[in-house]
Task: inverse folding
């Protein structure tokens, strides 16, 4: 069968890539083979524009149990247990159909984690939408939040944290990144690599239908644009009940030692799972599509191979154990079918009964895709728009209230109350109660802290400095609860890498990620790249989302961010030198421009260590890092959460050269706010700036001094629900 | 004392409930949904989650499971039964408790720590006897279909007969439940259901230990029956 040249372009392959496939096969691919190549050679699966850059990242460390290349990364937490985690994007599906897009994003990342043999214990999510005054953004926000809740709540995994930013460059291309954290007994963990020639390949979970065909290539590896409505059939439909059953089934199979290896079916479905399993094991695989349980009887072999139907897992099983495996599937009322075998051929062979319908070398499929160098070029100046929404003549009090009410700074309670944050009995620090979520791990006699961060606007101002800040922000959040970082996962959300500006942003961001991780000694154990995030107006803000997991010995000592007592001293620690560059205030005033001060990584790391030790020693009443909206917003958050006011003079920041406005609302990395006994704070090297008490927030910075009631501040900070639902 | 905690496909909180039972000092084991034998079990928890995916209607399929048939017999014989969230929905669907749970008034799943008033006896709003000095229990609620509903006459009758077991404290009702009802009991008092999750309030580290009172009250009702 000869394939028309136009066909491969429709599937996202270039003419030269098609030529290479013909060369590697020694003939033209048939329809099944072309479909499979187009998926595995897509950006989403092959990382063809990012793989070379990603080699810069440090991936090794003493505590690393599994690193990049597995379904998720894992770090040692002690006593024979490991914490598995990964963040992944589901941006384009969510932009087309937010509820199912976000729901299946959660489903996919859960499968990545339990594919290792880890029980998922926490979900976090990092979301980006256009400005909230846009109907489309409210629709996407509402759908994505409902979708995340629907899937995670139904399956019983606690959603413990996350972040949401609203910025115009995400108007057409929202971001939905979901992170999952799981716990595994190291002895029960399993890799994705196929092993054992003659072993059976068993497909478990849901049956295979026509949903999500071409998701990885057509949807995830191309820009969004006109006619995306027509791409709706490429979005998968999630069924958390099926996932819950297949999850329990897989964990039982692993506990009983019945699986040789396990892999989830995600992007590119059976094609990618089978080929990647064979590739990792250096073996071959035979799959018989006639044995795949189908939703629609008349599906073509290529459809079966590329379907992205959700809630499916692929296991390798010794022949003698197949019956026992299928019995466990039946117990959990989930599908189980032997669909193939591991071979020594080095080929992926697709059969329909006796007939061979496709045969390709594993190497060509998985590693044959050419890797491209980028052609980065730094743009001249600020390339994104910026509409002013706040008069620069506003008083300091008006400015604080405007910042607290700004949707990116305001409380996200409206969203996180739609998520179950307590299931699993591990959540010691829930959303908004501390800078990082804290989960107890009684199995190992300790606890973990988890945080996810990435301020795209600051990365847009300076991709290097902004990305370093994202890593340091995570580290600071962990320090506030007394945790030491163990590992990092990331999702690199960028525009079209074939264009010079996104290429430059990506290049700088990956270097920054590598430098920050090296300086902190934190390995990157897994991640995901999402490129081609562009709308008609151009690329999104470059958005590296960083997820970090840390360890703390005693969860009871984890500090909250709320002021806890009247009469506590308030101290500032860390190399904090705020400016208005890239700040929320600069955005509200329409003054955004390129450039950020370069962060002092080593000094911030040292401050994190000081904070961590002080929190672990139980010396502090509260700890909070200074981030969006500057120190004024950070103080207001502590006051609102505790229902206790404060009186603060920012003269020490003035002495560091800050203008009154920079001191109050400027942003920068490296700053921590504490409350506690003044002698304790002084001994830590903190600069004392005021004390807690009363029912007002009194702030002084040079000639700008003002007082805001805690209740007034709270009203502004809790305004998100009203803004989402009033017009929705 | 040994608790049995039912486990359906789609249950979410069964391991937490098991753990909570153990925290009361009792033994506990999971009861698979296909089991009919409750021998050796002194009290039953029908846990939270999404039994059978909660397709059709929350709790509507689980009520037909073999384990629920056994629970109905167990309850008829005076055995203590505690239904939590989805378990409460299942008990209502099974006719073991009066009323029904509808979609939350705001049409959203809501997860929130809130204060409950335990009600003991026919005098509505009366503060429970087991800890008079602490009038409210701090317990999380998390559900999308938790709005308690019964006809007005039936609500009057429930209150008069002392069948309201828990109310949301003033201003805490998260779902629009009739008369702030968070949980009810059957006429005999041995079957209790509530939407909030006492099994998530048994550990000071995770926020509260007030949930233990709910388990203890059910066990005590069983002992008294």
Result:
């Amino acid at each position: 069968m000869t394939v028309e040249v136009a066909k491969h372009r429709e599937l996202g392959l270039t003419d030269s890539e098609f030529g290479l496939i013909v060369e590697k096969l020694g003939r033209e691919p048939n329809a099944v083979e072309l479909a499979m190549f187009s998926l595995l050679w897509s950006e989403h699966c092959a990382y063809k524009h990012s793989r070379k850059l990603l080699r810069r990242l440090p991936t090794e460390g003493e505590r690393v149990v599994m690193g990049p290349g597995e379904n998720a990364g894992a770090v040692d937490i002690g006593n024979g247990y490991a914490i598995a985690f990964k963040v992944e994007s589901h941006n384009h599906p969510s932009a087309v159909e937010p509820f199912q897009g976000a729901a299946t994003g959660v489903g996919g990342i859960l499968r990545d984690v339990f594919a290792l043999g880890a029980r998922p214990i926490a979900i976090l999510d990092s979301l980006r939408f256009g400005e909230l005054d846009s109907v489309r953004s409210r629709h996407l926000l509402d759908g994505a939040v409902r979708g995340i809740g629907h899937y995670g709540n139904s399956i019983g995994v606690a959603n413990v944290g996350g972040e949401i930013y609203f910025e115009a460059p995400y108007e057409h291309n929202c971001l939905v990144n979901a992170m999952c954290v799981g716990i595994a007994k190291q002895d029960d963990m399993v890799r994705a690599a196929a092993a054992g020639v003659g072993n059976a390949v068993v497909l478990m979970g849901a049956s295979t239908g026509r949903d999500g065909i071409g998701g990885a290539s057509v949807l995830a590896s191309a820009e969004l644009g006109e006619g995306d409505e027509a791409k709706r059939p490429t979005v998968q439909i999630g069924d958390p009940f099926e996932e819950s059953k297949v999850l329990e089934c897989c964990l039982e199979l692993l506990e009983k030692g019945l699986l040789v290896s396990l892999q989830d079916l995600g992007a590119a479905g059976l094609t990618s799972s089978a080929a990647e399993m064979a590739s990792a094991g250096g073996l071959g695989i035979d799959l018989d599509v006639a044995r795949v349980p189908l939703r629609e009887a008349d599906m073509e072999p290529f459809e079966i191979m590329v379907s992205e139907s959700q809630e499916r897992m692929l296991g390798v099983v010794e022949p003698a154990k197949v019956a026992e495996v299928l019995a466990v599937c039946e117990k959990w009322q989930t599908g189980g079918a032997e669909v193939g075998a591991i071979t020594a051929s080095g080929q992926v062979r697709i059969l329909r009964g006796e007939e061979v319908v496709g045969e390709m070398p594993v190497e060509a499929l998985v590693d044959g895709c050419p890797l491209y160098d980028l052609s980065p070029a730094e743009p001249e100046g600020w390339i994104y728009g910026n509409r002013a929404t706040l008069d620069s003549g506003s008083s300091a009090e008006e400015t604080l209230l405007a910042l607290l009410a700004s949707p990116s700074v305001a409380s996200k309670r409206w969203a996180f109350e739609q998520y179950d944050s307590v299931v699993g009995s591990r959540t010691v620090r829930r959303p908004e109660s501390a800078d990082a979520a804290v989960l107890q791990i009684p199995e190992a006699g300790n606890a973990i802290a988890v945080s996810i961060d990435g301020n795209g606007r600051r990365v847009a101002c300076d991709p290097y400095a902004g990305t370093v800040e994202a890593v340091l922000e995570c580290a600071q959040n962990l320090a506030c609860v007394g945790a030491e970082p163990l590992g990092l996962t990331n999702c690199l959300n960028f525009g079209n890498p074939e264009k010079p500006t996104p290429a430059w942003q990506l290049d700088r961001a990956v270097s920054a990620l590598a430098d920050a991780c090296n300086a902190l000694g934190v390995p990157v154990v897994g991640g995901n790249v999402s490129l081609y995030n562009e709308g008609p107006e151009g690329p999104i803000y470059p958005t590296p989302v960083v997820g970090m997991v840390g360890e703390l010995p005693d969860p009871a000592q984890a500090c909250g961010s709320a002021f806890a007592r009247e009469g506590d001293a308030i101290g500032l620690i860390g190399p904090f030198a705020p400016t208005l560059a890239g700040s929320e205030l600069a955005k509200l005033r329409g003054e955004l421009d390129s450039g950020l001060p370069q962060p002092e990584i080593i000094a911030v790391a040292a401050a994190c260590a000081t904070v961590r030790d002080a929190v672990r020693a139980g010396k502090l009443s509260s700890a909070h890092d200074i981030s969006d909206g500057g120190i004024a917003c950070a103080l207001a958050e502590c006051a609102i959460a505790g229902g206790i006011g404060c009186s603060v003079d920012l003269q020490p920041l003035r002495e560091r050269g800050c203008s009154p406005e920079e001191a109050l609302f400027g942003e920068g990395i490296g700053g921590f706010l504490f409350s506690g006994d003044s002698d304790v704070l002084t001994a830590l090297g903190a600069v004392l700036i005021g004390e807690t008490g009363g029912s007002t927030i009194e702030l002084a910075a040079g000639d700008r001094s003002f007082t805001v009631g805690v209740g007034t501040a709270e009203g502004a900070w809790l305004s998100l629900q009203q803004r989402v639902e009033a017009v929705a | 004392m040994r608790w049995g905690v039912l486990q359906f496909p789609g249950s979410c909180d069964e391991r937490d409930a098991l753990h909570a039972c153990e925290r009361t000092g009792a033994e506990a084991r999971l009861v698979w949904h296909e089991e009919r034998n409750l021998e050796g079990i002194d009290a039953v928890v029908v846990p939270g989650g999404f039994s059978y995916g909660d397709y059709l209607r929350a709790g509507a399929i689980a009520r037909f499971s073999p384990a629920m048939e056994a629970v109905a017999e167990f309850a008829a014989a005076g055995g203590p039964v505690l239904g939590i969230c989805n378990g409460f929905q299942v008990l209502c669907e099974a006719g073991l408790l009066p009323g029904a749970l509808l979609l939350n008034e705001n049409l959203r799943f809501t997860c929130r720590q809130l204060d409950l008033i335990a009600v003991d006896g026919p005098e509505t709003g009366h503060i429970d006897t087991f800890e008079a000095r602490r009038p409210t229990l701090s317990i999380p609620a998390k559900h999308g279909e938790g709005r308690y509903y019964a006809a007005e006459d039936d609500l009057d009758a429930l209150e008069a007969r002392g069948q309201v077991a828990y109310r949301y404290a003033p201003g805490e009702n998260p779902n629009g439940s009739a008369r702030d009802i968070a949980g009810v009991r059957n006429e005999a008092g041995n079957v209790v259901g509530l939407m909030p999750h006492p099994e998530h309030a048994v550990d000071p580290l995770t926020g509260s230990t007030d949930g233990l009172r709910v388990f203890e009250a059910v066990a005590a009702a069983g002992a008294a029956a």
